[in-house]
Amino acid sequence: MNSGKSNVRPFRIIGKPRVRVDALSKVTGQTLFADDIKLPRMLHCKLLRSTVPHAAIEKIDVARASNHPGVHLVLTGKDFPIEYGILPVSQDERPLCRDKVRFVGDPVAAVIARDEQTASAALALIEITYQSLPTIASVDEALLPTEAPLQDYAEEHNIHRRLSYSFGDVDEALEEADHVFEDTFFYEGNTHMAMEQHASVASADPDGRVTLWSSTQCPHYVHRALAKALEMPAAHIRVIACPNGGGFGGKTDPFNHEIVVSKASLLLGRPVKICLTREEVFFCHRGRHQVTMKFRTGVNNDGKLTGMHLQTLLDGGAYGSYGIASTFYTAALQPTTYHLPRYSFDACRVFTNKPPCGPKRGHGTPQPRFGQEVQLDKIAEKLQMDPAQLRLGMVAEPDSLTCNYLKIGTIGLKQCIDSVVKKSDWKNKYHNLPSGKGVGIACGAYMSGAGTAIYWNKMPHSGVQIKLDRSGAVTVYCGATDVGQGSDDVLVSLVTEVLGIETIDIKCVTGDTDLTPVDLGSYSSRVTLMMGNAAIQAAERARDLIANAVADKLEITADHIGFADRLVFDVEDPTRHMSFQEAVVCAEEKHGTLVTAGSYAPPKSAGKYPGGGVGPSPTYSYTAAVAEVEVDEKTGVVEVSRIYIAHDIGRSLNPVQVEGQVIGGVYMGIGEALMEETTSRRLSPRLSNALLHDNPSMLDYKTLTMHDMPEVLVDIIEDPDPNGPFGAKEVGQGPLLPIMPAVANAIFDAVGVRIDEVPITPAKVLKALEMKAAGREGRVGPRAFPAIDWPQAMFVLPPAEGGDGKASNKPERKRAAKMHAMDKVEEQTTDTVKPS
Amino acid sequence: MSLPEKTPLLLNVNGEDMEVLVAAGKTLLEVLREDLDLTGTKHGCELGECGACTVLRDGQPVLSCLLLANECEGTLIETVEGLADKDRLHPLQLAFAEHGGLQCGYCTPGVLMTAKALLDGNSRPHRSQIREALSGNLCRCTGYQQIIESVEHAAAAINAPAKAGS
Ligand code: FES
Ligand code: FES
Prior knowledge:
The complex is a heterodimer.
Chain A: H1 23-27, E1 43-49, E2 55-61, H2 63-67, E3 71-76, E4 100-101, E5 107-113, H3 116-123, E6 127-132, H4 139-142, E7 159-167, H5 170-176, E8 179-187, E9 199-204, E10 210-214, H6 219-229, E11 237-241, H7 256-268, E12 272-275, H8 278-284, E13 290-299, E14 305-315, H9 323-329, E15 343-350, H10 366-382, H11 387-392, E16 400-401, E17 407-408, H12 413-423, H13 426-429, E18 437-447, E19 462-468, E20 474-478, H14 487-499, E21 506-510, H15 527-554, E22 561-564, E23 567-570, E24 577-579, H16 580-591, E25 594-600, E26 620-631, E27 638-648, H17 655-674, E28 680-682, E29 691-693, E30 711-717, H18 739-751, E31 754-755, E32 757-758, H19 762-773, E33 779-780, E34 794-796, H20 811-825
Parallel strand pairs in A: 1-12, 7-34, 8-32, 10-11, 14-15, 20-21, 27-30, 31-33
Antiparallel strand pairs in A: 1-5, 2-4, 2-6, 3-5, 7-15, 8-13, 9-10, 9-12, 13-14, 16-17, 18-26, 19-20, 19-25, 22-23, 23-24, 26-27, 28-29
Helix pairs in contact in A: 10-18, 14-15, 15-16, 17-18
Chain B: E1 6-13, E2 16-23, H1 28-35, E3 54-57, E4 60-63, E5 76-78, H2 91-98, H3 108-121, H4 127-134, H5 145-159
Parallel strand pairs in B: 1-5
Antiparallel strand pairs in B: 1-2, 3-4, 3-5
The site of one FE2/S2 (inorganic) cluster has 12 residues of chain B, from loops.
């Protein structure tokens, strides 16, 4: 993407450890997060949330609350006639519920008062009559016929969506395989628990416009949702994303509270603020889906995969959120890691009366990654192969198309595996550590940005503008949002590199829909790549304007102009130079006011089949990890003693930040492996039968503390990718993926039991150990995958079999595919071994 | 319209005496953030579970969300805003900036104040002592490793003989 000119080496600042641009304001407490904003005449908002999991709202009486001293406004569902939602296909949310509540925590009314205490007191005065509806507590219940589905657009029963795809004839691939492995896994849902509680402040101006400051990862999507839900032109709404105190996907949906305070401010003509309590953050959720999955995988004796059939079942909670994308993601990325000639999947998301699930770090992919990597460990064991060697033998090819038409560019997975094998002394440790200690290996791959936007459009995914003026000041504008991942630092450092100045010379303005060009948001690990490419383009255009003007002055051609150390000079004779500021003056004299822009849109997807938009990415990152664990056989407690991890990042822009992202991903992965889970429990019918969140607090939702965190040894593999800015790929999400399976595999190496479930709690380990001691299979995990009535699979012939990326359910097409495949299979030995 | 009753309160924060009118039951966290506009101190739970609100009272780390403001009269409160000595950043601040001790920066003020109390009492802590001291400060971003390293670098800087000009 970036032109050759910027790839001139050596880099001045790229790749060097550097203090990130927002660090000093953060260590001094000066960074303003959303809840730190205080405006004159500001009022405070609190939401009344449903206390029942599923009910029709019969009556809401707000008279007493409205008359409460200090209350300025009470809003209910009837004030919000319009539905919204992040995906165009699931516009199923209302800022405040109007007819129905769908989970304990669904908001039904809002009080705006002089302070939070007054608002809370008034909430208690609102009287609501609910008419109870049957509660759906589990995926099994959601699959049963019902008179009253949770959402009226459910496909059938409480099924939100079913997807079935077949990339080549997988049944045949499995029939022809030497071995077929069939395994079921369960991954409990969990949540982001970003340290910052969501907060928003809205301020209407007298002209009828409104500004919203919010802890959001996606100001552009909030902007769209506000325009729809408030029935206002988007041009009259300004959304400013404050620096987020962590996001991890938990702040990517437009939220009800953002719309409520905006509306309230418009009605009252005063600023209105809300800050959710931690319990409310657990109710907002949009976290990791609980997924049950089943893999049927064909493998030959040489350890090569012949085909895979994957089934996934997701507990989506009460609303759509990103759910359909999540459902695709439980399947779409599997073929990007290992060479897989044929692949089919069935994926199903259901509605239950729980907080809605959505994207959390790794969005939909950690669950099947866990399943596949544990299954590979079982395959290696059965084939008596070293699991690292097995993986090395099947790594996907660089510059190839997967069977589901994902374009793989650079792939550094082999180097990653080699690195962790060497650094961990794998060969001496695997199968050789004393009982109770073990090592496990696993890999993963992740997108560097989703290839398609949330809503269909042909516009750029990221835009950057640069303004320069005679003072020498450079300001960079981009809609991207810093959620802690360091996107401001990436933006500034790339422009700094191109213009040959210092990071302190550049101001950046980000995440402001009035001032900055659109960037879709901080999700899908897209920002470094997409914003980065746009930034380099804008910076190169600025540099070209300056070089052109300076060339006139120095009487040389523009391609002889260099930029470094705040100087602009003749590369043949650097003594002929001028300061960067003088150079900008030259450029302003020659070209007038200086503004440049850059934009980025990902390459077109090779898959032309419906649904082929989910999964493509400009490039994929790769990770391998070895976990070392100690298992206490008396208590079942698993301690991760060390993690070796290698991540293929293309190019590391700032190694301090890259390493931090890797370790942060490992931390969250160990948490998911061992303890993090969002569960719910049903009260007895006598006690209202309510379905309650089990652990909506930081005390009950277990995460690792500094005490629990093992040492992490990080290796960064750099193999610049032509699609990345200076070759960079993502690092925010990929490193989490191999951790859960590496831990599970290490537990098997340590004590010989399989926990085919996440989280791996001491109770599960003990149970498996007991089973093993009793002479049974030492395994805890689901026995079966529920029966689901799948639609006919959409058939797509893989590229290696002559496919063109289009779907076809026409039988002749499928027969042709089969014939073609038969020819190939006949070349192989076909001594089929029955399913293990 | 009746307003909640407020009582005057004298607090010493970062070496400055400050007088505020405080409604009964307000926590130190609320008074710092809402009445004194010292928003550097953060909150992640307001229930004593996360450590984000940690400030020092008479040199000891306390969870400001669990402390009533009027319990702090006559004590010395330190917050992140007082950590730097005018334009000279505290070694902890420099080390955190340089060694990846922060990402989103939201847990950072609480972590810094806890670490300051640790280093004030023990300028050469072992790794296990750092882990012990900071185990009540949750961080969702960093995975803690670079926080530990930052504290170690700060300790080293504090113990290093002062360099000319620094
Ligand atoms: S806000 Fe005080 S401990 Fe979390
Ligand atoms: S840096 Fe984000 S929570 Fe610690």
